[in-house]
Protein 1
Amino acid sequence: MRFMRRFFIRLSNFTAGRRADQRIQEEMAEHLALQTEENLRAGMSPAEARRQAALKLGAAEAIREQHNAEQGLPLAENLLLDIRYALRMLHRSPGFSLIAIATMALGVGATTAIYSVIDATLLHPLPYPHPSELVRIEANLPGVGGHDTGLSIPELRDLQNSGIFQYASLAFFGTNDLTGSAQPTSVVSKSVSPGYFAVLGVDAALGRTFDPHDATPGFNLEVVISDGLWKRAFGADPHILGKSLRLDNDVYRVVGVMPATFRDQGQTSEQRSTDLWAACGFYGDPAPPPMRATRFPFETIARLEPGLSPEAAQGRLDALVASLKKQYPADYPSQGAWTLHLTPLAETIVGNVRQSLILLFGAVGLVLLISSVNVANLLLARASARGREMAVRQALGAARTRLIRQLLTESLLLFVLGGITGFAVLFCARKFLLQFIPESLPRLNDISVSWGVLAFAIVVSVAAGTIFGLAPAWLTSRLDLTTTLRQESRGSNGSRRRSRLRPVLVIGELALSLVLMVAAGLLLRSFWDLYKVQPGFNPTRVVAVETSLPNPNDPNTDIYHTATQEAVLLREVLRRNRTIPGVEETAVGDWGTIPLGHSQNDRRTTPFVREGEQVRSSQPSLIDTLTVSPEYFHLLGMTLLRGRLFADQDHEDTPLVAVINQAAVRMYWPGKDGKGEDPVGKRVHLLGRLGRARPDWTTIVGVIADARTESLADDGIPQMYLDIYQRPAKFLAFYLRGQVDPAAIAAQVRTQIQSVDAQLPVFRAETLDDVLSSSLSVRRFSMEMVALFAATALLLAALGIYGTISFLVNEQSREIAIRLALGAQRRDILRMVLRQGFTLAAAGAGIGLVGALIVSHLMAGLLYGVSPYDLSTFAGVTAVLTAVAIAASYVPALRAMRLDPITTLHAE
Amino acid sequence: MLMVLKTLDVLGPQHGYGIARRIEQISGDILALNQGTLYPLLLKLEHEGSIVSQWGASENNRRARFYRLTVPGRKQLQTETREWEQTAAIIARFFEAKAEDLP
């Protein structure tokens, strides 16, 4: 209380500039006068009286200073003085200041930019209440290689009743045709079990969400819509509640509108912009009856009971799994080794980009480190120029701590100015920079250059300034007064320690740049290999246009229920598409057939059983199924290796046929020698595609070569192609090869499709080249960023080595001049200086290689087709670094060579 | 500080020299401090609100700064006195205690 009062009075005195100097002087004068009188009375001589009084009072100046210090805030005053002085120093050497500030702006700006991405994606909690309670549940069958196989309704009920979760919900992401408005549109929708919003803990802004205890077996014909859809399609109608809309020809009632701020959860940006939610019990039409073995390949999310940690919950879940296995041995055969796995929801959303982001942050951290080292180096260089100033100030009585404080203020000012500049540039360029971030990055929309990011920039600059300003300040202020004063007048250099630190800094810089360059080199090679990889299909001049057929809940209202019904539509649309000018070939397939057009997470894997196989339902083999028309293979240039492709004679009434790829042969028909037997003519039984599969045997009629349509990095994914004229698909992609304009083709195809059925929405035309390149976008982004950082690091390191060699040459100019005067060849001088540069480079490269080995080992998961210890990358990068280092020392070496011994020695 | 407050309590408003004299008189010449150090301390006490000061005329009619104890200052004096007495008592007991007194 008293302390606070004192502090505020001092603060106000300080800010108002109130001084008490006059007062203390008067008081002391009065004190002296009174004491002198007293002394006179005691019988001293006037002179002695004054002397004794003054002695008793003590050192007047010191008291005055103390008094003044008590009046204001001496720390703040000194700081202000220091800052003013530092600003003057910066102003006096604008070149130095500019370079230092620009270097720091680069380092801090880049770090802050990456931080803002990480802040939005990794650090921010999910935008739901108590986000740490949210988990995703994955069912795995490790025994048969089944990953994320989904849950069945009885299993979901077990989870709900387990006491581990408050709520659990299935969610099935897809699209629906929304009709009734001027143009039929396709809305991104989720079919969810009724507890979905209870899991997320979000309520509707208007109306209500679903009742988590709703027990409607199928769709309950209620939908909740997003704020966006409400505004777009319904003009923000305030009386929307209770109105109906048609989805895939079914009539639903709108019961709620979500808040404008609500974003759904999901792994892709498409899922996160879901516009419509329909509740479904998933145990009545259109879903099959609830059997344990009928698992839906859906996402299961749940909210943990409050206070239960994910680890504890996992333990209880394991116990539940064990008891279920005991209770239903027929449904959980031991070979499958069924497990349930919990992952915090936040992690699954960020998932695969975490590693890339951490790599980027590491890279940018190195750049920051290098730029800080560079500035420290500059500060040291200046320190030797200011040795004399320091010596004089020390001689005049400045304490060493005071000098350090002042030097530190100077370097902090530099770093913070740099940091703020970096932030300002980032802030101004944020719109421009955001374009470079791949769209597939999760939570892209949350990225903002906010106060938190500014705080980060300032904290980083202050930390860097303190760490990298302290050593130069320490060394600068540490001098031997007499020698320095004497030496400096002769223009030589002060502390040896200082000149020893500089090479160390440069070596550090070189080592760090080498690490970055190796990382960049490896990423570049992986990217290049991926880019050059033979995908096994030909994407050029192919456009895919998407549409979707209505999928009403009552099969009797579905006009495209059977393959024959749908075939009429497909054949007619294909025929019409061929008439579009420029189109040479057309084909159709389901959405899964768009090569690289979907992330790994929503691959459509179907369980199947081979004929004669002993195992039953619960742990079948899994295979990617793709439904295509016969022309698909030719249009994409896929080669048939054995048997035949689909033909016109295959239709709904003939035996079901399939074509598989070689990877499927290798995995499921390995034969006795493991080389693969001939699967043509073998039969398989495909299971449970939402209960709609015909319980018929499918005959394999052909084998095609592997094509990397699922992932460019993986050529071994087993695939099975099915005939679309035998198995109808609802979500369709029409392919057109030829000389077409991708911008106009969507409208042309829409005309063709809607002239057959005016109710069908047509959206999104993409060239396969674009799809392919965007599938590489995250890789390309991190590769480009790391390469950019590596280039920056190299540049900074080159500057550092240039500065250091120049400094060394300067320091040795006397020695060089004497050597020259004694008859040394100029070539020898050149060689001598270059050798110094080379030594630095070699030491830096040596340390850097060790660091690079560690880093490349850590980033092995991000590489493709190149070993993390790739010799050529390491050797190439080292060569480049050495070459740059030598080139950077060449300029000062030339200067040393041209030194005129006479002038130099005279100048001394 | 306790001495300054006590002096002002006993003598009423005083200028700096008066306080210094009083401390010197009471302590004899044992406390040979530089008297000047008194002034920063007085300013600190003033900032803390224990005393107030104003200009006035000294005995020989010159301008001098007079310090006066405030109500919070008096309270502070009481608490500090009590604390000091406690401390002194404890220390005193320590010195009185002999080895055979211990149980």
Protein 2
Amino acid sequence: MKEKGLSYLIVGPFAILLAFPFYVMVITAFKNRAELYDPSVTPYWFGKQSPTWDNASFLFHETQYPRWLANTAIVGLCVVAITLVLAVPAGYALARLAGRVGQSLGVGIFLTYLVPPTLLFIPLFWVINQVHLQNSIWSLVLVYPSFTVPFATWLLMGFFKTIPAELEDAARVDGASRLKTLTRVVFPISVPGVLTVVIFSFSLVVNEFVYAFTFISPSEHKMVSTGVYTDLIRGDLPEWGAIMVAALIPSIPLALLYNTFLDRFIAGFTGGAFR
Amino acid sequence: MEALAAARPRGRRLTNVFERPGVLASVLISPAVLFVLLLVGGPLLIAIGLSFTNATSGQLHGKWVGLENFRNEWTNPSFQSAVWHTFLFTVISQAIVLVVAGLLAHALTKNFPGKWLLRFLILLPWAAPIALSLMAWKWMFDTSYSIFNWTLVHFHLSKPLEVPQYLAEPKLAMGSVIAVHAWRIIPFAVVIFLAGLASIPKEVHDAAAIDGATGLRKFWSVSLPLQLPIATVALLFGIVFTATDMAIVYILTQGGPPPSFSTEMVTTWSYKTGIEAGSLGPGAAISLFLLPVLAVVSIAMLLFARKAEVS
């Protein structure tokens, strides 16, 4: 009982502190514009004219926001597809077939995930200009797998290690070929792991800022993470209410998915390394 | 008919080849490896190549200038202070992250009602897209309408015209950037810590209980030493994520405030030189100064991975 109380005492205040900006986001998103700039209205709650949908309606009717959402969705789906095609077979083979070499190769691939966009954006900008993909979302579809593939391969390697090899042995004893074992036995059980990789890869895409900021300037080709900052905030009078709606819409579903899949993520992440 | 008969044995030979684990493994692994080599290794080599030239975004193929870009930056006061700021930014924010995340993860291993909600709230800063959650920080640090300053004035802790300008005063700006970055990384470190704590076998706790170790004593002599390896992993990641981050600093201060540019980092300086000013060669040279940090962290990780494998 005493230990539980202590947990609340530590976790509670930090939870409030860490979530506070999101609370401000929600209040600001649904607050009347005039009340935002009125010091007699507390910033911690709504005034008499709030809550209101005005900011949301401004965002969807007067800005390019729907376009940015669509661009982000297209890039996200394409990148996830490329990632799965490359990482699922590689993750499986590293966990099962390649032995000790596989372990080292897996660590090697994972280390490339640590090479940050801030080190590669200038040469990649150079490449994108050479192949005339500047200002196109396809430049991002080409570049983003460079960090989703290492990340996903590592996670999948961890997942495949947690699936008992006996299942496959049984299928092989029954006369199935390795390829058939892979498609009929292994892939079906790995669906939860693959789903986790889909969610975390998609989340990496929505999160990315440096490449999207460097490669694309026309407003209609921007991603959510760059469009909101460059087009909605850098203007003379930022529409803070609309900006907060714009920030909330992708954040809430992503955060919920993130939480739901977190335990699986931990299992995969540590499965590759600490056993 | 004849063609079919001829094709059959060959087909079978092909399947037989796939029965050899080595062959199947290389077929399955090589596409991913080639792709990563091409898109990470390739640009890295191009960056090194560019850093020896005076290429610009208008003139993609510049002239060879040898080590001039590196020499110029090494003696450039802007670059020197950017290195110092990056160092401060990384060390201070990671110190905060380690302490807070350690405490939180430890408290979160116990079960209590409402834990799911509290964990959700704690993870928000890491789970939400950073460029978007920074909008809330920009608004909270606003020069005229900051919620912090409203509170200070409301409780008569500050006069309306003397309120702090969080992103416009050199030291405060650095403090703000560090605080926001720690805010962002804490949830990530909590996740890694939780993973590590989950891997401590239950017997260890039982043994500690039999020996009469409880509370602080148990934390100090049992939990903390067992947490050290995972703390190292969290720290190594944290260093990479911090030293190479650009989004937080760029969106909050753009390396400013002028004229001191107290939050200029290696990354923002490289962006300003390489992309904004279009000097790709010098820009590439600046970002390559991040490579030693990465090399040290990678070697530490490899050593750690080997140690984990042996034990």
Protein 3
Amino acid sequence: MKNKKGIEFSFAWMFSIIVGAVIIFLAIYGATRLVRTERAVSEAEVAKQLEILLNPVETSIEEGKISRISFVDETRLYNNCRAEGTFGVQRIRTSTKSGIGDEWSPPGVAATMFNKYIFSSEIIQGEEIEIFSKPFNMPFKVADVLVVWSDQKEYCFVEPPSNIEEEIKSLKPKGLNVTSDKDDCKEGSVVVCFTTSGCDVDVSMITKSVTKNGESVRFDDSFDDSLLYGAIFADVELYECQLKRLMKRASELSLAYRDKSGVLSREGCSTNLEADLVGLANAGLEIEDSFDLGPIVNMAKSLEVRNDVLSCRLF
Amino acid sequence: MCCLAGYSKGQMKIQQMAFVLIAIVIFFAMVAIVYFSIRVSNIRESAVLLREEEAKELVRKLAGTPEFMSTECANCIDLDKIFILKDKKSYDEFWDLKYLAVEIIYPVREEECDNANYPDCRRVTLIEEDDIGIPYSAFVSVCRWDSDRYIKCELGKIYASGEGIE
């Protein structure tokens, strides 16, 4: 006889299977969304903490300072610069490597800064970042240039000027070496040549220019060599943007010094630098790219000379 | 079974299951609400802490920033420049703070600085918004050019408070 016994598949069974599946789907979907949100929150927190840590790395009376920031896991920093507005804006977003889900989460909410100038590649990736702070003067202190690179990148400076060589040897930044022959550079390092060409980065101290990937930018080292480092380490687009932002801040500071000159005049000490300061302020706002630096530098030099002979110096 | 005369056994089970499901959904919804309210409050708290931390770090370094620094001595601030910044609208959002002020604590004076009483005044307030909390402070030398043509430095304090979460 044929066995006609089977599983009774009642409505109750079907109902519970469908509803169970919906609940499990919703639970998995909810958990995934939750993990994604938590990662975004964590990225935003890392970016904000980084912003806070960038305050003590700035210089006060030093000519250069090296700082190191370590992350818990391998992290990507997304450096973004916008030159619009009174001071432009520096944005930093982070993305941390994870073993769950996507290897790299989408970058979190950006930390926004108006008073920081980070010169680096667009994406910095590593567990540790090196920050080289240098004051930028034009002719008064305008800001600190923060040159940033990661532990995954090495730079090799071939025959740099003596002042650069001495500075690097005394500060000993990690991943930045000086040599007299480019053959001595470690394999995989970014070779920066100061007296020859054909390297990853070519620096000309005569034309005051830095060339990489076929693109050139200009720098000026009349007051300090912060822009030289910035031009070597930053992507061309970022360098030009940060330079514009620095000039905007120099412009605002020029106007502040012009007003200070008015205060000093009331105290009986006239400086007669008002017109020059307004000229510098206007020139700073008109800069299109680094090739426009020349006239501004000349104005700044003349201002410095005139300020130095004053009995009540403005800066 | 007088009262359940209109329902079959199967219908009863479905109704029971539906009630259990509704109860489960309500339970998970309540758990989610509690979780998210705790999480949001934690995020808010950590954002406030980060803002405060930023203010603390900033107050330590403000004396070295170009807008504050005096070229006459290390870690001195230039009162003339700060007084000028008071009226500069361009600096309103520059520091991302709720409160920023410089106060001369010795010699003791009373009033907020303005064009009429400067420099014989006590405080230059650069930023002051509502709900400033307790500002962090740091001692500094506050210097300015005196009418006798020398640099006059007095004992002062910088106050800064982080921006709260709206």
Protein 4
Amino acid sequence: MQVKENVNKAILGLIDHKFRSFLTILGIIFGTASVIAMISIGEGTKKQAIAKYQDLGVSNIIVRDKDMTDPELEEVRMKFSKGLSLEDAKLIGEVVPGVVSVAPQSEIKIEAKYGDRSAKATAIGVTPAIMSVLNYRTEKGEFITSDQYDRQLKVCVLGANVSREMFGYDEALGQSVKLDDQWFEVVGVMQPKALFTETVGELASRDLNNDIYIPLSTFNKRIPKANPLTSEVKQLTVKLENSEQLISSAAVIRSLVSRRHFNNDDFSIIVPYELMKQEEKETRIYNLLLASIAAISLIVGGIGIMNIMLASVLERTREIGIRRAIGGKKRHIMSQFVTEAIVLSITGGIIGVVLGISLSLGIAWATEVQTTVTLYSILLAFGFSVLVGITFGYLPAKQASNLSPIESIRHE
Amino acid sequence: MLIDIKNLTKDYRMDSVEVAALRGIDLQIAHNEFVAIMGPSGSGKSTLMNILGCLDTPTSGIYRFNQIDVTGLNDDDLSDIRNKHIGFIFQSFNLLPRMTALENVELPLMYAGIDKLTRMNLSRQALEKVGLADRMRHRPTELSGGQRQRVAIARALVNSPGIILADEPTGALDTANSIEIMDMFRQLHAEGNTILVITHERDIAACCKRIILIRDGLITSDTPNLN
């Protein structure tokens, strides 16, 4: 007997029993759908969680000046450390292998004013290199150019929030804003960035959308330091060719900077990629938990299949007897019922996949939860549901094939 | 000999009580015989028929079908014999209700592993032979009792079996249809088929060429029917 004919017969038989078939696959449909929906929630959460590390750059190493009290600062200066400097940046770029570019930056909290509106913001002095190092993109206008940097112009690029708070829907480009007591011309507005809700190492949690970028040269010239002893720059973002040499490069950078700072522990090194890996590992456990809850529902669905198929075997005892009497072998009966189980679970699986994807999209649309439907979740859910269907279809099929032909043919 | 049985017994165990359904049967049936087995209910004739049809195995004794010792065969081999050498006809027709007449007749050929086209042709011929050429696409529920039994006969014939086993073939039919079915059996016999009918009706047995009486698991008489 050809498989194709078997499958056709099974499909026709199941269509003949629409309601029973529908009841049978209901469990598989919901099981599959819930696996996909649950994994999509897990994946969405994970994506959200790692987005912030991606903003920091997966092939970057961050060297950051430690936050220190005034007496601590005096102490390290006494011990000859000048703190993080442009000279450090230059040296890292020249000495450490695999470095593509180094972006130094300084920071200070300021109040930005436009007309009668104001916003609390962080002014960040940057070099144009930061554009490529951190994948910064502007929504409107241009980022700070080399020319503006070299000429120490008083221009600024606003973070998405700052722009909205001060300008609303008005045009920000070309306007002048006051940062503390200095006037700056707005040349660009940034795209919104992922929220930085957790502290990553030395990087305190803050909203990157509240940043205002100005040329580092202008920053050092125009913005007064909170303490005259404050280091020249607050942070160096080092971009490497690829993420494979992160650990060794980080070690080289540490020993280099440490030597230049006369072994003062006044800086820290953050490797976003490593932190991302760690976070991924944590969310994987969470995902696994969600998937196993869904898997349990699939198994319950499988038991449903078994129940209804057992009932169907009882109902068709006489048919089985007739088939056996005219020469059907045990394996023929077996394959007939297993084929039905396979057709049922594949049908249920397909409907479940469609429902699961719709459910994920629905959840994302109706709630705050971010969902991501992944191919692996579809394959996993579908494969698992078919497996469950076949496993639980096997037992009734086995029972059907073992019925005695004489007794089953007399069965009413 | 087509069927050669020696000292065949069959015991059933019912709630820890042994019941002897057959207590030593000796029977020979040759090719192209037309035999009736008669007996009251509980006499063991159905048990005998199940064993002859390879649906059941005896407790002891020897059963040779076409020189093959059937008692030693496994389930798959017995299925093969039922499929290729035995055509069953039942009192309650036992057609599959969700299939058309043609599909019902095709079923034994399907289990024999014959391709779709040959199956269709053979089944069509068998249905034509029993006079149902115009009812091939009907389901059993759309056919009369006599027509259903003729579909069952076509199904029994389609594999050109060595023997046709009919268990009360007219038990569910009215007189006119019964006569029609028995005429068909007579014709099949004339064409060279071997037929064994189990019945408790004298009129039906009277159509056969040899009548065997069975009582309490033993053959009590075995006589040729001359008229």
